[in-house]
Write a structure and sequence with these properties.
Chain A: This is Urea ABC transporter substrate-binding protein. The complex is a heterodimer of chains A (430) and B (365). By secondary structure, chain A is α/β, with parallel strands linked by helices. Chain A is built from 13 helices and 14 strands. In chain A, the strands form three sheets. A seven-stranded mixed beta sheet of chain A has the order 7-6-8-9-10-13-14, sandwiched between helices. In chain A, helix 2 runs parallel beside helix 12 and helix 12 packs across helix 13. Helices cover 76% and strands 2% of the residues of chain B. The chains are: A alpha/beta (430), B mainly alpha (365).
């Protein structure tokens, strides 16, 4: 066959396709054309039967599985307890699980599947900010509800997401308050290179400037990096009297080993970590981080009837050695918060829940959580802890009362944060 | 009748069909069948979620078609197509971000994590035509430059594979490091419109699917055209006996570079279409692992055939998505086992199954 002939055939084929394409091209709405702004998805949730479907989306494979599997265990515990007590509005919960596979795009895909194919009434899960930011447009488009159980970097609020973990003014800011109160004047920042440490450090910079604290160094290591010789020698040269640590995962092992080798101790230059909870302590090894500080809203050691019941129920279910931590407690509580919202709204409908969410509260193991209808975050008590030889964390300081969430730091308590939130997307409409 | 016999009979029947139909008629029938499946059957048979998923997989399949040309026909095992997929994807994502921000606007993530101003190298992407030009020309230029430099030095085989993989690893690290201008490990997401059309509208999502399907069919036809041309013969000859081709007076480096450029442009177009369909592009979509997954689909399907890469890539993605939910921890083992089995027993992929069986039968006779 000669070349021109094939060329003609090929071109004709493509032309045919192009025509098909144009003919099938009955195009949809343009951007900003009235109706396109409203959620186009009609809910397919089936509320007629004796049971109601909910979705759990956690990474069961990949690098995040080690953190997210325990979160799913906590969710299942809550589901079991709610069903044992008669369900929600008389309906038994039936769970559909999805694996986010530690990959943002997979999280987005699976969220879409849960909402449009499995037709769940609400979704619980997500961990990394990347996974949340990937799912956000899906929940807004399909008009679903996501309950996100992890502390994060703030500067966000969607009417389709309830943020059950701490925002910055419930974790980062109180942690800085604590360091200032301890008389620390020279703080060194070290973090993994992703959105949470970058944003947290931007906030810390603004805070330090206003409060007369010197930031003597700000260093980032790629996620998963295990080489900290350069960073620790910079720390040594900086003359810092405290370290604010936003490193993630295995990087902590390498960092703390290098830190100890350089002659630092928790007494001389304490490290305050915001991504190390009881689960991570196990992985890093207590001997490496004993005596160091952490900032969270919940520790397993909190003495309250609600927490005693939670811990003993969890250990009864998953073994006497099972450890619980902040994100797990948030995940567990998120299911009860959703239940309370549904019962207040007397409906599983997304809009009804959004409208009735304000003021809904739940006596969580960490203390009472109350939902803000304005920004879809909850009130939380900030707690600074010290890592004990047992691997558990004891509270050394806590905020006098539960802190009202302020994801954009625009409240009167944070004048130094003015300008940080410019360009942030609009707050929820209700 | 045993399964083997039945397969053999089917094989004879296809052979018969092949004899009856002239190549040109087969081309028309094949194209028509593919168009029918993608434009009529798929929208009718699939749920909204599956339809969106298939649209993403069509974009991966575009990368696979290119790998089929470069690796299957040209012998260049490229483990770094994520680089070109990423260039196309990020170029498109930057345009969509700027388009959403409006004239002179700043994408939201930049004010939150960056300086609040648009970097100079982003500015050209406000223009849709520059964006489309970049998606095609930048990967082409990069592949031509890299390809010629590498092939002229007669770097081949495993060394080329390692080099391409290193490039994509470096690219991912670069993206993650530039939080303020690329979104870092979070990537770019939350797009509202695509050249003025709202992405929230299911009708527009359907149109994007058709666009991807049409592009994919076009790419397969183009590769068929190349395979049957004199150039295609030269490419296969270079793959099998580079020295002889050189002695015949051709420049093998140039021959290989052309195939590499075409495959890179295919990958970039796949990436560009992936962005509005998936609604996100992040380093984990372009890094080492996806680059290997692109190649895995091609290997399983049959790299040296026309349809093997497309079908292998689509099948692997589809089965993966189905199995991942039910057996999250088992899926990666299954994938590995499948890869080993196919390459161990069917080194040329599933597309050659019929031929292998026929030969077996012939041997035993």
């Amino acid at each position: 066959m000669s070349l021109p002939r094939t060329l003609i055939t090929g071109a004709a084929g493509i032309a045919l396709l192009a025509t098909t394409l144009t003919l099938s091209g009955c195009t949809g709405a343009k951007v900003g054309a009235g109706a396109s702004g409203a959620p186009s998805a009609k809910s397919c949730v089936d509320t007629s039967g004796d049971s109601i479907k909910i979705g759990f989306i956690n990474s069961l494979s990949g690098t995040m599985a080690i953190s997210e599997k325990p979160v799913q265990q906590a969710l299942y515990l809550a589901e079991k307890q709610i069903n044992a007590a008669g369900g929600v509005l008389g309906k038994t919960l039936s769970v559909v699980t999805s694996d986010g596979a530690s990959d943002p795009n997979t999280f987005a895909q699976k969220a879409d599947k849960l909402l449009t194919q499995d037709c769940v009434a609400a979704v619980f899960g997500g961990w990394t900010s990347a996974s949340r930011k990937a799912m956000l447009p899906v929940f807004e488009r399909d008009n679903g509800l996501l309950f996100y159980p992890v502390q994060y970097e703030g500067m966000e609020s969607s009417k389709n997401i309830f943020y059950i973990g701490a925002t910055t003014n419930q974790q980062i800011v109180p942690a800085m308050d604590y360091l200032a109160q301890q008389g620390k004047k020279k703080v060194f920042l070290v973090g993994s290179d992703y959105v949470f440490p970058r944003t947290a450090n931007k906030i810390i910079d603004a805070y330090a400037k206003a409060k007369g604290i010197d930031i003597v160094g700000e260093e980032y290591a790629p996620l998963g990096s295990v080489d900290f010789t350069t960073i620790v020698s910079k720390l040594k040269a900086s003359g810092a009297d405290a370290v604010f640590n936003t490193l993630n995962g295995d990087s902590n092992v390498a960092f703390f080993k290098e830190y100890t080798n350089a002659g630092f101790t928790a007494k001389t230059v304490p490290v305050l970590s915001v991504s190390i909870a009881e689960q991570e302590v196990k992985g890093i090894g207590v001997q490496n981080i004993e005596g160091q500080l952490t900032a969270w809203n919940y520790y397993q050691t909190i003495g309250s009837p609600a927490n005693d019941a939670f811990v003993s129920a969890f250990q009864k279910e998953y073994g006497q050695d099972a450890v619980v931590d902040d994100p797990m407690e948030d995940a567990y509580s998120s299911l009860f918060l959703w239940k309370a919202m549904v019962e207040k709204a007397k409906s599983f409908d997304v809009k009804a829940i959004q409208e009735n969410s304000d003021g809904v509260s739940y006596d969580a193991p960490e203390g009472t959580m109350t939902v803000s209808g304005k920004n879809h975050h909850v009130t939380k008590t900030a707690r600074i802890g010290v890592i004990e030889p047992s691997g558990l964390i004891d509270t050394v300081w806590q905020s006098p009362s539960a802190i009202t969430p302020d994801p954009y730091l625009t409240g009167p308590d944070y004048p130094w944060a003015a300008g940080l939130a410019t360009g942030a997307s609009a707050a929820p409409s209700n | 009748m045993s399964t083997a016999e039945r397969t053999a009979v089917t094989a004879t029947r296809t052979r018969g069909l092949r004899r009856i139909l002239r190549p040109r008629a087969r081309l028309w029938l094949g194209t028509l069948a593919a168009a029918l499946i993608l434009f009529v059957v798929a929208p009718a048979a699939l749920s909204g979620y599956q339809f969106g998923l298939l649209a993403q997989f069509l974009c991966y399949a575009m990368v696979a078609v290119g790998i089929g040309l470069a690796w299957g026909q040209g012998g260049m095992l490229t483990l770094g197509q994520g680089l070109f997929f990423g260039i196309g994807g990020y170029a498109m994502a930057m345009h969509l971000q700027l388009d959403d921000a409006g004239p002179g606007g700043v994408p939201a993530f930049m004010s939150l994590y960056g300086s609040g101003t648009v970097p100079a190298w982003w500015e050209p992407f406000r223009d849709p035509w520059i964006t489309i030009g970049t998606i095609i020309l930048l990967p082409a230029a990069l592949a031509a430059l890299l390809g010629y430099a590498i092939f002229a030095r007669r770097v081949r085989g495993a060394y080329f594979a390692i080099l391409s993989q290193a490039l994509v690893a470096a690219f991912a690290i670069l993206l993650i490091g530039q939080q303020a201008s690329t979104g870092g490990s979070t990537g770019l997401s939350n797009f509202r419109g695509f050249f003025g059309y709202s992405l929230a509208d299911p009708l527009n999502q359907r149109l994007l699917f058709f666009l991807a399907a049409g592009t994919l069919i076009g790419m397969v036809l183009l590769v068929r055209l190349l395979m049957r041309s004199r150039y295609g013969e030269l490419l296969v000859a270079t793959r099998d006996q580079e020295m002889r081709v050189r002695f015949l007076g051709y420049n093998p480096a140039l021959v290989k570079t052309v195939a590499f450029v075409v495959s890179s442009v295919f990958a970039a177009v796949g990436g560009a279409l992936f962005v509005p369909i998936a609604g996100i592009i992040s380093p984990s979509d372009v890094a080492v692992v996806p680059s290997i997954m692109f190649v895995a689909g091609v290997a399983i399907g049959g790299r040296a055939t026309l349809l093997g890469p497309v079908l292998g890539s689509l099948a692997l993605s589809w089965v993966g998505a189905q199995l991942q939910d039910n057996y999250p921890s088992v899926w990666s083992y299954f994938q590995g086992a499948l890869f080993v089995l196919v390459l161990g027993f069917l080194p040329q992929g599933f597309a050659t199954l019929g031929g292998v069986l026929r030969r077996r039968k012939g041997d035993s006779r």
